[in-house]
């Protein structure tokens, strides 16, 4: 019988060291992830139980009003509300991740910087932390997108459609490897 994989948060709630920007008080935080248009992944610590402060920080990270997009039951992608209208660059890593999680080719791109969190807490409206398993998937997709885009510099795709198809093929391959690893 295969082992049961439990999807648990990676660092559920931590306390930042006193003096780490909090005027000497310990501050409970949840780890979110920021993906820029170049597929660079950076951690973003959000206050654990303050939905208003979380939203303000997410808005700041995406550059304005953010919409919650659901492509996985245990994750929320916070995307700029008017990304394509505002002329933001496509976020290929966010799009590829959403396609991989939905197991379909989305007929639209995601634009601008994206923040990924765990699901909303039903009681407090605050977001939770992304599980370690999903965080590994996010890291993998960002790495895959960066490597693929670098490859396009020397081996140009025949068309935009061919480029997106190639990117999704690599993403699906790499996600399957992460999902099936113990």
Architecture blueprint of SSEs:
Elements: E1 14-16, E2 27-35, E3 41-47, H1 51-62, E4 66-72, E5 75-80, H2 92-102, E6 114-117, H3 132-154, H4 160-180
Antiparallel strand pairs: 1-2, 2-3, 2-6, 4-5, 5-6
Helix pairs in contact: 2-3, 2-4, 3-4
Describe this structure in words.
- By secondary structure, the chain is an alpha+beta fold.
- It is built from four helices and six strands.
- The protein has helices spanning 51-62, 92-102, 132-154, 160-180, and strands spanning 14-16, 27-35, 41-47, 66-72, 75-80, 114-117.
- Strands 1, 2, 3, 4, 5 and 6 form a six-stranded antiparallel beta sheet that branches.
- Helix 3 packs antiparallel against helix 4.
- The longest helix has 23 residues, at 132-154.
The helix/strand class is alpha+beta
Low-confidence stretches: 1-24
SSE string, helices as H and strands as E: EEEHEEHEHH
Largest sheet: 6 strands, antiparallel
Instruction: State the end-to-end distance.
Output: 14 Å
Rough outline: globular
Query: What portion of residues belong to β-strands?
Result: 15-25%
Counting H and I runs of at least 4 residues, what is the number of helices? Answer: 4
| Percent helix range | 25-40%
Which value, in Å, is the CA radius of gyration? 17 Å
Mean pLDDT, as a whole number? Answer: 86
Give the oligomer, counting copies of the same chain as homo and different chains as hetero.
Answer: single chain
* Total count of strands: 6
């Amino acid at each position: 019988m295969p082992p049961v994989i439990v999807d648990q948060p990676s660092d559920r709630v931590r306390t930042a060291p006193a003096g780490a920007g909090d005027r000497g008080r310990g501050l409970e935080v949840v780890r979110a992830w920021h993906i820029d248009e170049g597929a660079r992944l950076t951690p973003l610590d959000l206050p654990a139980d303050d939905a208003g402060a979380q939203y303000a920080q997410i808005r700041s990270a995406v550059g304005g009003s953010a919409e919650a997009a659901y492509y996985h039951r245990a994750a929320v992608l916070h995307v700029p509300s008017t990304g394509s209208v505002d002329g933001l660059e496509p976020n290929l890593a966010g799009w590829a991740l959403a396609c991989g999680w939905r197991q379909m080719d989305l007929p639209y791109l995601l634009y601008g910087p994206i923040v990924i969190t765990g699901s909303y807490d039903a009681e407090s409206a605050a977001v939770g932390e992304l599980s370690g398993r999903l965080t590994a998937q996010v890291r993998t997709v960002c790495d895959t997108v960066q490597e693929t885009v670098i490859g396009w510099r020397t081996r140009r795709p025949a068309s935009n459609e061919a480029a997106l198809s190639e990117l999704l093929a690599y993403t699906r391959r790499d996600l399957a490897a992460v999902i099936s690893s113990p």
